[in-house]
Structure formats: C-alpha cells, structure tokens
Amino acid sequence: MKANDSVIIVSDEYYMSAGFRVPKYIFLNEIVSLNGGLVQLKYSMDREFDGGLVRLDGSQLGRDGVPLFFWRNGQIRNFRVNTGGFYISDSATLNCRFDNIRIDSAKFGIYGNTYQRTVFSNISGRVADGIGETSLCSLMTRIENFRFEMDKGSGDRPQTGISIQENGRKIVYSNGNVDLGATRPRAALVNYINAEECSVLGLQLVHRGTHENAVVQYADATRTGRVAAPIIRRRYSTMGVRCARITFFSGSDDPHNVVGNKLVESRFTGSVSSGECGRMVAVQGKNVIRQCDFGDGKPFFGLTVANQEFEDSYLAGNRKLDFPRELLKRNVIRGIRSHGGLQLAD
Q1: Which of 101, 126, 274, 332 has the fewest CB neighbours in a 10 Å radius?
Q2: Integer-rounded Cα radius of gyration of the chain
Q3: Looking at the predicted structure, is the pLDDT value of residue 77 above 90?
Q4: What's the pTM value of the predicted model, to 2 decimals?
C-alpha cells in the first residue's frame, strides 16, 4: 500500500441477509501516508471495532462473483437516463456527486450499496420499481431535491418506496416529492431497517392505490450476534381494522441497531390498507416521527418496543388512540390530532 491508495475497512461483526454477509461497519477511505505500521487515513472513523483493511485494486469480488465497482472523488452532472434496467447499481462511491439527473425510464431513482460521503441532488423522472434504496453500510450520504413518479413496474421485483437498510448511517433524504400512483408496494413506503442516525425530511408522498404495509417502519432485522432474524407472518386485527400482513422480527436487544432515525415534516396522501401509518418492531434505540401528516392509519408498536417518539402529527381518524399503559411508559406518544382537531393522543 502507498499514499493515495483507496482502502476498505470492514468489521468482523456481521449479520446474514438473503445469504449475504452484511458487516456492522464498512468505511471507504484514502491513505494519506504510511509510517512503519502506522497508516494515516484521509477521513475520520467514528467507531471502534475489530476488523480488517484491504487495498481496493479492482481484484475484489462483490456479490455473485461480480467485480466490486468503486468510484471516488467524481461528479456526474446534467445526465439523462432511458433504460429498462438500473442506471446505477451495486457500486460503492466515496466523495462523489450526482447532480441534475433526468430519468425518462429506469428501475430505480437511487439504488446501490456503500455510498459514502456522496450527494444526489436534483434527481427526477419516472421509475418502475423503487424510489431510493441505500444499502450495505452507506454513510454520510444526502439525497436532496428529488421528484419521482412510479410506473406500473418491471414485473421482475417488488415495488418499493424509500429503503434505508443494511447498517446505513447518517443518510438524509430531504425535500422530496413522490407520486406512487396506484401501485401496490410490498414494503412500508419509508423503511428504516438496521439504520442509524438517518432522516427523511420534508417528504411529500402521494399514493392512490392500496398496499399491505405501513407508511413508515422502523425495524431491527438481526438478533444478538451474527444470525439473521427469522420472520414470522401472522394475521392481526386491531381496533376493528384487519391488517392484511404484520411482520414481526425476533430482533435483538442492541439499542444501536436502529437508533437516531427521524421522519420529520412530511405529508402522506392516500390510504393504507393495513391500517398502519407507522410501525416500530423489535426496536430499542430512540427514533422519532414528528410533525407529519398521515392520510390514513394508526401507529403500531411491537410488544418489546421502547424509546420511540411519535408526536405532534395528524391522522385521518377520529378515534382516540388506545395503547397499553406499559407501552406508554416506554415510549413517547403525544400531540396526535385528527384533521378535524380532535386530540387523539395526549
């Protein structure tokens, strides 16, 4: 290794997802200097962990034996996309910027793994399968000023909204306008799964169809240690609303798996067939839903959930929210009102 080399630092700790290892931490970096056994890196690292450092030289393989693509210190501006597939995919970036991208046709608006210190700005157009998916230890990345309309779908994968997952940290989606049309997304419209200090701010989302999930979900997909969580699907009925599907994760007790995430000043127009506006399952770290307007639904809290804040928001219903006393002791639920002004939760 030498100065200016690109390196990847990966933690020994991981969990399994769809047959792949998902490390707890990945840091992309550049070498500034070497002095004996001391390596000076360009970017600071805010975590301590056992792991390894590898020079990125193009020989590393990613998923399915495909070479690991990596790009640093670059920009793409004023670009137009028309494809039946992905215009960007399982590629890692460090200190890159995508600006003023117009999508006539593509599967996703933003999609990929290990985006770090990267900015997507002024991205707009029509997508088939998803709005944004930032996965596999993406870090300190911003998606801002985005506008998307969702088409009927490619048919080869489920349609989704925004997913921040697989140990993503400090990712911000802001000032977005999304029209899902009459599509039927499989997952929650905004999904935080094993995410830390990530935010969705000022999102305006319209959905004219129905789907079998919540508007927003905070979920921990791991158990203690390195084993993926089993998923149990059940039928559930609450407050007279029959939920078509509830997904319970066994989860872990680690408060750092899903923590510090926010959904703030966002508005959702449309219906939620499951009857849920927000879902928190197997989550112990503090997360926030605040100053949001939900077109339909009610919040759902798993039996073990703690430290969540759901406040100063509007729901479409006119019935008081009724939660077990123990749940109210462990979480903050207050300032919830109907559009007609009825106080639904103190």
Answers
A1: 332
A2: 20
A3: yes
A4: 0.86
